[in-house]
Specification:
The protein has helices at about 5-35, 40-50, 55-70, 75-110, 120-135, 145-170, 175-179. By secondary structure, the protein is an all-alpha fold. Helix 1 packs antiparallel against helix 3 (about 55-70) and helix 5 (about 120-135) packs antiparallel against helix 6 (about 145-170).
Length: about 180
């Protein structure tokens, strides 16, 4: 879709916000891998909150594309619906990025959990970053459902491996305490 159309603008905005979310996760992964300060965690939380502020614009742009596609013979309604669903999914991702940043900040405030490198958690956050970036770079003509199922399956595998590694290190006594 052309950038001058509502669908084109939505697609551009999806890529921009998705890349920002992926970069934010990447920064957090690097920090967790190296050990981070409360100030650094506070900066991540500030950045994540600013990212959340982009949600209303993304939502209104995707709704505009959907409304435009209903009456315009030049725009495919299926594409607009797909972009709208991607916008909803990205909203959820952005909120989760903020949740991760909040959790890391809370850990930094509570004690020195953050001062030691934590490779398993950093690896999981890094995997999420790559998945979000992969999603942000999807072309409009890509099969969105197939791509997102593949990305979701990769993330599930990463989470399973993380849980097994943490349980193996005896950091948690059971999966319930891990959750």
């Amino acid at each position: 879709s052309h950038p001058k159309t509502p669908a084109g603008r939505t697609s551009d905005q999806l890529r921009q916000v998705g890349k920002k979310a992926a970069q934010q996760l990447g920064q957090m992964a690097e920090g967790v891998a190296a050990g981070y300060s409360q100030k650094r965690a506070g900066d991540w939380l500030t950045d994540a909150r600013q990212l959340v502020e982009e949600i209303p614009n993304l939502r209104s742009q995707s709704l505009e594309a959907k409304r435009y596609a209903r009456w315009s013979p030049l725009q495919e309604a299926d594409l607009a619906d797909q972009l709208y669903m991607r916008a909803i999914a990205l909203e959820h991702i952005v909120v989760q990025v903020r949740s991760v940043a909040r959790s890391l900040f809370d850990l930094a405030v509570e004690g020195d959990v953050n001062s030691e490198p934590n490779r398993p958690i950093a690896s999981a956050i890094s995997s999420a970053s790559y998945a979000v970036m992969e999603n942000a770079q999807l072309d409009d003509d890509a099969n969105f459902e197939v791509a997102t199922v593949s990305i979701a399956n990769d993330l599930r595998l990463t989470c399973r491996n993380l849980a097994a590694e943490l349980l193996g290190e005896r950091l948690y006594s059971s999966q319930e305490s891990l959750i």
